[in-house]
Amino acid sequence: MTAHLPTLSDIINAHSRIRPFIHRTPVLTSGSINEILGAEFFFKCENFQKVGAFKFRGATNSVLSLTPEELARGVGTHSSGNHAAALALAARNAGVPAYIVMPRTAPEIKKIAVGGYGGIITFCEPTLEARETTMAKVQQETGCTFIHSFNQFEIIAGQGTAALELLEDCPDLDTIMAPVGGGGLLSGTAIAAKSIKPDITVWAGEPANADDAFRSVQSGSIQPAVPPNTIADGLLTSLGPLTFEVIRHRVDRILLCPEPTITEAMRLIWERMKIIIEPSSAVPLGALMANPDDGWKGKKIGIILSGGNCQLKLM
Amino acid sequence: MTAHLPTLSDIINAHSRIRPFIHRTPVLTSGSINEILGAEFFFKCENFQKVGAFKFRGATNSVLSLTPEELARGVGTHSSGNHAAALALAARNAGVPAYIVMPRTAPEIKKIAVGGYGGIITFCEPTLEARETTMAKVQQETGCTFIHSFNQFEIIAGQGTAALELLEDCPDLDTIMAPVGGGGLLSGTAIAAKSIKPDITVWAGEPANADDAFRSVQSGSIQPAVPPNTIADGLLTSLGPLTFEVIRHRVDRILLCPEPTITEAMRLIWERMKIIIEPSSAVPLGALMANPDDGWKGKKIGIILSGGNCQLKLM
Fold this sequence. Notes:
Two copies of one chain form a homodimer. By secondary structure, chain A is of the alpha/beta class. In chain A, about 45% of the residues lie in helices and about 15% in strands. Chain A contains 13 helices and ten strands.
């Protein structure tokens, strides 16, 4: 069975659809990082995206792809992360409700973010089972459409628009990289990049402590992510059937990054570029730093910085 | 006696001189900060400037204004902050030595920064007297030209180029703001802004715990900064004769900012704009937040974010 996957034209359509709502984020470079690491980097700053993460692209595309009847009943998801905030804002922009199921134990800052964007929160116990049954109940009561955070056609198409923009701005990249958690961003990136520029290499960065995508591609079947133990808290999820299908065929390499190198890469970007990125965003650069002999020195490498939402301590 | 002060044309000349060496830093805006605070802000991002601070403008202008004979003998300063790093890089770009006198007790990160830019460091005891006598000795030995960190014609002219660029990008500002420590940035800003746009108001933000500039203007004579006790460690210095002269005549108001509001403003910029600024940079916005009834609501306000060099703790 062949999964129904987005193509470049679906990504281009998604881009037209979401363009009025998203930021066209800048591509930044750093002379000192280039000098330190010995390659030419182009950072696509989705940390500057609305809600502080690329997730807003896919969420907006999903909301705007609904039929008028579906749209009127609103959307829902269970998530405690950036997807929940992104979906809440995308729904608010469309004037419809977003029903968000969150574990009671979610960090206060996440609850405030989702609530701040107008999401209607239902709390549940902190288990996957409770999340799913609570979500089912909310769907039954409201008729809302469930929007998965990565394993969905419109989400993948929406996330692919970041690579579309990056390759518009920097058409001569040798390699494009994204972090991999559930694989929505990486799938959209791979579809866009390989379609626009067939000779580009698509690489992923994954925490060595949450290397399920790496193991899934190696073994040929989706491997669970347990027990992930990484600072890159956006990358804990395992792949879904759609994202696995894309990644196994269109991603050239998944490079693993040990925990200390994630922190080192994050610090390098914070200190040299004076921009705030979340740990997940540092994983691709960290994965290169951890694998210095993998042929990337001297190349032009585009890296999607996935988001900037992290708890900050001052000084 | 009238002090010899830079004019707009000196600032324009400084800009032509330093332009090949500096970054033209972007002006960023934040819809959410505008909404939260009820005014329209335009942030001039000197945190993205080379060496991470506006200081590189003045230092470069000072180095490039020397005669060939002076230049060949190099430059020197006693500083443990951004000025030392800025002067070291400016001298390296000109191919001449920079002699930096630093207290032995300076933070390791500052020593590394200055050394990394090729500065030749002489350590001294951590007293003002030791700094000055050590500096005098180094000058005697090397013949280098001493470059003060703020109370100097070329420094003030160089720092004024940030406001020049800001007003090129945003010509219809109602108010322009800078933080005030020694007053180099504020003086350059006031000269540039009032000359280009006589009806603009020039405001300063100063830590309430280091309010010497405020007290100096009130009393009509330079007041010492002791004992300053503020997180905004770039603003500990008191004014010099030149900067006092400019500030008393051309700055419309100095607004004070309590310590908790400095942190609040810094956090607001970090979280909403995903950029890293040092505490001193947050003082102007904090000073507005602490003085909400001072007539700035609904106005277009340009703020110079002075730098981005701070010790970061992750998470």
